[in-house]
Amino acid sequence: MSLLQPSFRGRLRLFFALVVILPLIVVAVVLFRLLGAENTGRYDARLGQAQLAAAGLYEDARQEAVRATHAVETDAALSTAIHDRNRRQIDARLSALAVRTAAERIRLEVHGLGSFQAGTADALAPAVADLQDSTGRSIGRLVISTTSAEELALRLQRILALQVRIDQNGRTLASTLTAATTARLPARGQVQIGGEEYDATTVAGQGFTGSRDDIRLLARENDGGPGGVLVVIAITLGFLALASAFFMIVSRTLRSEVQRLLVAARRLGRGDLSVSVPAEGSDEFAELGKEFNSMARQLEARLDDLRRERGRLQEAIRRVGESFARGLDRVGVLEIVIQTAVDGVGAAGGRATMRRRADAPMEEVAHSGDPAPFERALRAAELAVTEAGQVAEIQIGGTSALAAPLSATEGGDRVLAIVSVARAERPFTAGERELFAYLTSQAAVSVENVDLHETVQRQAVTDELTGLFNHRRFQEVIAAEVERARRYDQQMGLIMLDIDNFKHVNDRYGHVQGDMVLREVARVLRQSARDIDEPARYGGEEMAVALPQTDLEGAFRFAERVRQRIEALDLPLQDGEGVLKVTASFGAASLAETPQQDKEGLVAAADAALYRAKRAGKNRTVKAE
């Protein structure tokens, strides 16, 4: 093998060296030079943007303090303590308000009483408010901060990706860089810290009692600039141009040898297994030709095996079809049947569609292969099944599609599930249509069993009159939700309601009217509940709703909303003479507020609150104590 005619491997090595390695070395050299250059303007722009962002974050912290100031200056207990000039109560109330408002530091100055403090001394970004009595006369001044120096420093470091030090009147309160804690930093300029060069700038703010907050921002000079990006782009474009030129040169030398394999592959793709590729020589292309010829011989031998496998596959499909009648998972059955149908009839793709409810549109729940290219034919076949209610075959533009119904409404007026398959170039044979019909008929039996199983399950946990969960299901749900709330430290609420004067309704208007009242109240309860809520008929005229991820206040608001909607009902009397107004009493409880923090304690708390509402005059909501 001469140097003028290298092997395929040798040519690949030459191609790689000329097109990849050499340009890569050039790019690496240029990049190192670019990354080593300094760009003072870049640092100035970066620090200028960081200054604006830091000032904005400082102002955000001050606005948080303003909101906390409003909560403190409007606190009734603090106003009372100031009015009574009780220093102990003022100190105690300030400490409580510091916790409630998440304030880092509170300073209160009262005329004639002096100053009071709560919280830590390293707070910053304070808000100041004048305290006034009921006549508008100034009685003191309130200063509050909700942000500590360490908290603000860490927040700035995370957002700006810079090192931060915060000083107050020359004293360092917090630093994200240990070496900078005691270093002398200029207001603006370069400084060396721990052997590293930093650019420094300062953002000033007003601190407590006239002090000055200085936020020092430090940027290390080690990043590339936009000029380097432009150079990298230019070099990359040059690299691509060079690679394209060498690729064209090398590809022409390989085309003649690749062409032989290409012609043979095309013949093999058309089913001509007698194809043979010339395999003279000892280079890699000759070895590839020999392997290609060996593959063709092996494919020819495998073809007979595949024909025999096809017969066994069809028999296996029949056995799988018989097993469908024992399934209880509708979507699972549809997934199996569509996969089996596509394989069994040799389709290129297929899908299963169904209605979630009788009045809902059809939607795809499972597919096999790629049904997208056959969308038009599949849709036409499914439409024919919807109209006729039986197996249909459609041929459109060289595409054949088969579809069959799996279930329908009780009256048979609406198809609820359809399986459809399709392929191009050739229609389905009579045997394939027969196999498809058999498979879908077995699947229909399985879907019917699933419907029956779901109906039985639903009836076992549902109150027949109201459509709500029954008492047994409620006990299961509340136990599971309480356990989940305790395990994941989540909120859990519960409301219980009782229809006011329900016995009077039954006695005066009859049980038919009473049943209507129960159904209408249950309807309001269902419409008001979220998807995760669990409304249930607890017993008689008493109902309950388990409220996952809901605290006591949320449970109370939900109960009030339901109570008002019930109060607004106008229920027609059975004799047609006027309307009936009903009300209900509610008890609201939450797991976190219940001493026992278990299912029994939560139910007992809500039940006790309900009966307090009854004793207090009915048609109201009471929170658990």
Explain what you see.
The structure is a single chain. The protein is an alpha+beta fold and 625 residues long. Among the domains are: 133 residues, Beta-Lactamase (2-Layer Sandwich), CATH 3.30.450.40; 162 residues, Alpha-Beta Plaits, CATH 3.30.70.270. It contains 15 helices and 23 strands. The strands form 6 sheets. A 5-stranded antiparallel sheet has the order 8-7-11-10-9, with helices on one face. A hairpin with a 5-residue loop joins strand 10 and strand 11. Helix 3 runs antiparallel to helix 4. The longest helix has 44 residues. It is flat. The N and C termini lie far apart (96 Å). The mean pLDDT is 80.
Give the SSE map:
Layout: H1 8-36, H2 40-73, H3 76-84, H4 87-100, E1 105-110, E2 114-119, E3 123-124, E4 127-132, E5 138-145, E6 147-148, H5 149-160, E7 163-168, E8 171-175, E9 189-193, E10 196-206, E11 212-220, H6 226-269, H7 284-323, H8 330-345, E12 349-354, E13 363-369, H9 375-388, E14 392-396, E15 399-408, E16 415-424, H10 430-461, H11 471-487, E17 492-499, H12 502-509, H13 511-528, E18 534-539, E19 542-548, H14 552-567, E20 571-572, E21 579-580, E22 584-590, H15 599-615, E23 621-623
Parallel strand pairs: 22-23
Antiparallel strand pairs: 1-2, 1-5, 3-6, 4-5, 7-8, 7-11, 9-10, 10-11, 12-13, 12-16, 14-15, 15-16, 17-19, 17-22, 18-19, 20-21
Helix pairs in contact: 1-6, 3-4, 6-7, 7-8, 7-10, 8-10, 12-13, 13-14
